[in-house]
Amino acid sequence: MPSTTVSAARTRRIRTIRPGFVSFLVPFTVLVAIVVVAPPGHGSGPLAWYTTVVWSLPTAVTLRGLSGGLLARGHPTAGPSPGPVPQRLVVVIPTIGRSDVLPALERVVASCCARLPAEFADVRIDVVTEEGCAARRSIAALAGRHPLVRIVEIPADFRTARGTRFKARANHYAHLVRTTCGENRADVWVLHMDDDTGVGADTAADLARFVRDQHAAGEAGLHLAQGVLAYPREHARNRWVWLADAVRPACDVSLFAAGTGRGTPRTGLHGELLLVRASVEAAIGWDFGPSSTVEDAEFALRFSRRYPGRSGWFAGRSYGASPATVRDFLRQRERWVSGLLRLVACRAIPLRHRLPLLHSVAVWLCGPAQHPAVVLALDAVVDGHAAPVTPVIAPLWALNAAFSWWLYWEGYRINVRSSADARLRLGESLRFLVLIPLFVLWEGIGIVRGVVDALRREHTFTVIAKPL
């Protein structure tokens, strides 16, 4: 894709996506009706206790997610722009600089150059890459085509004080460069993006609204915000993986909206579409040590400890691409799980600040144990049956099952509505609904691989191909 091209889809992004709840209420009502008409009875034995625990475990996460969905649904969106905001916006796009990520990087840079100047009077885009990377010449050419772009090369011999590696090292070097330039100020905002996540008109408008609101709030203003990660259909190289990835934007309008939107992102952040004051980023930094592979979640915990109640959420979206293959999908989940396990065990952060993330990670790790296929396999070898030890538990099962269904369907709807062709296709929708158990199984395989990786204490940072 030529770097000067911005897809037609971007021209229509100003329409708002609000989470709906019909796809939660329908399965919840059906499941509760089944429980009322045909009560599951009283279970006993190991299998009954097993299902009672693992199918009830997500309840707190479910309630938090539903509350976040209500918050997102009632969240104000950007209205007509009164003009560009004067505060400086620095967009940071770290990239490994391989040829297989170049098409996505060009798309992202083109979208930022096309959309952000309409809402920000002072914009610069820092593309951060390693000295001597494979696509160095092509990346350098971006600055020639786009005057807003500055290439920031990380010297090969650069080391942080604590030996941080991977993306956190790149973020830390970029922050040091900005500090040298005197940009570590409260009136400078830094927008962190990945090299496959572009912006649209809605992104720029909501970012500007947030910055404008914080300027008006003065000392009471917030310091950090995050929006929704969407994955348009046209960016998908593998349609099945795109469908499997649908759960991600739904988590943004539910679980992440509940945490970040209420001021303290103790359950984590995304490393892209992350807006933070330059002065706050300078106070925290990204030098978390050599074992950090989920630098976004660690930054969230350190921010929560230092600036409780000072984060916000906005409805604008970034436009990324799902993994190109099932193998990349699994590798991505593996890295997240292994990195989060190391983070929740990090004693450098007080336990009370890790507990909310620890709980969320524990629920996520139990995902494979909750899969119906696992329960059916256990039923074949363990005495008893899967009914709860008390019928009172059954409505909680209905609640959690309906929420899981809602996450996938709502995420799919957001991705479709964020696409150039924003129609829900009947055949695709039916295939998606039928295949949800398979997609949950894929998530489970990624989780198991991540646990194994963490037990082996392998600190790797896999950068998957980003061809679109």
Please describe what this structure looks like.
This protein has 468 residues and is α/β, with parallel strands linked by helices. Helices cover 50% and strands 12% of the residues. It is built from 18 helices and eight strands. It has an eight-stranded mixed beta sheet. The radius of gyration is 22 Å and the shape is globular. The N terminus is likely disordered.
Instruction: Please mark out the parts with pLDDT under 50 across 5 or more consecutive residues, or reply none.
Output: 1-13
Give the oligomer, counting copies of the same chain as homo and different chains as hetero: single chain
Provide the CATH topology of one domain. Answer: Spore Coat Polysaccharide Biosynthesis Protein SpsA, Chain A
Q: How many strand elements?
A: 8
Envelope shape: globular
What is the mean predicted local confidence, pLDDT? Answer: 90
> How do the strands line up in the largest sheet?
3-2-1-4-7-6-8-5
Helicity range: 40-55%
Along the chain, the helix and strand elements come as HHHEHEHEHEEHEHHHEHHEHHHHHH
CATH architecture of one domain: Alpha-Beta Complex
The helix count comes to 18
Describe the sheet with the most strands: 8 strands, mixed
Cα-to-Cα separation, first versus last residue: 8 Å
CATH H-tier superfamily of one domain: Spore Coat Polysaccharide Biosynthesis Protein SpsA, Chain A
Alpha-beta content class: alpha/beta
Radius of gyration: 22 Å
User: What is the highest CATH level, the class of one domain?
Assistant: Alpha Beta
Strand content: 5-15%
Protein name: Glycosyltransferase family 2 protein
Organism: Amycolatopsis samaneae
Keywords: Glycosyltransferase, Membrane, Transferase, Transmembrane, Transmembrane helix
EC number: 2.4.-.-
